[in-house]
UniProtKB/TrEMBL annotation:
Keywords: Iron, Metal-binding, NAD, Thiamine biosynthesis, Transferase
Taxonomic path: Archaea, Methanobacteriati, Methanobacteriota, Stenosarchaea group, Methanomicrobia
Underlying gene: thi4
Name assigned to this protein: Thiamine thiazole synthase
A Pfam family hit: Thi4
Residues in coiled coil: none
GO BP annotation list: thiamine biosynthetic process; thiamine diphosphate biosynthetic process; thiazole biosynthetic process
PANTHER family recorded: THIAMINE THIAZOLE SYNTHASE
InterPro entries: FAD/NAD-bd_sf (IPR036188), Thi4_fam (IPR002922), Thi4_prok (IPR022828)
Complexes and interactors: Homooctamer; tetramer of dimers.
Amino acid sequence: MELDEVIITRAIFDEYSKTFLDYTEVDVALIGGGPANLVAAKYLAEAGAKVAIYEQKLSLGGGMWAGGMMFPRIVVQKEACRILDDFGIRYKEYQPGYYVANSVESVGKLIAGATSAGAEVFNLVSFEDVMIRENDKVTGIVINWGPVTAQRLHVDPLMIRTKFVIDGTGHEAVVCNTILRKIPNAKIGNLGKLGEKPMWSEVGERLAVDATREIYPGLIVAGMAANAATCSPRMGPVFGGMLLSGEKAAKLALEKLKEL
C-alpha cells in the first residue's frame, strides 16, 4: 500500500479540528496536566462529565516524571495506594506506611487512565485568562498555543466555555494568580497573597487535600496549586496528597455540576 502524504495531513488536521470544535464547550476544564488533574480527569470522565485537560508543555505529568532529584521513584502513603490500584500502577512497601512506585510508569498509567476514561487532552495549549460573567463566576477560559506564549508572540487567543475550572498548575497556581491580577479585591488566597511555605512533607501532604476546594466561584484548586493558593507547605517527591487532591477535586466538581 502506498501512503499519500496529503491524506496523512488531512487526517490529522480533520480529526483534530473536529475534536477542538467539539470541546469549545465543556463541563470541566482542567488547567495543567499534572498528577492531581490526571486523577481528577479520570474520575470526572468516568462519571459522564465532558472534561478537557489543557497542558502548555508537550508532555503531561508535571514534576512526577523525574521522581526525586531525577531518581525516577516516588513515595506514596498508604491512604493513596487505592488510587494507584485504580490506575494499575505497581508499587511496593518500603517501610510500614511508605510505598514506592516507578515515576515513569506512574505518569504513563495516569495519562492512560484519564484518556481511556474519555478525558480529552490538548497539549501545547496554554492558559491565558479566565472569563467571568454573572455572579462573578468563572464561565470560561482563554487559551493560546504553548509556543506562542513561550515566544511572547502577539497572537490573539481563543475562548472555551466551561461550567467549572480546576487549577492544577502546581507551584505557580496560574489561574488563581490571573484572577488576583485582574480582580485585585477578589476573595482568594491568604489576603490576596499566593505561594507555598517551605517544605514540610507531613503537613503539606495533609493540607494538599484539605485545601482542595472551590476557592472562587467556578474555580477549584487541586494539588500543589491548592497549597500555593492557601499558603501551605510544599511536600517534595511524596505524591499521595496530590492523588487524593485530584480525587477530591473531581468529587467537588461533580457535586457542583449536579446543582446546575
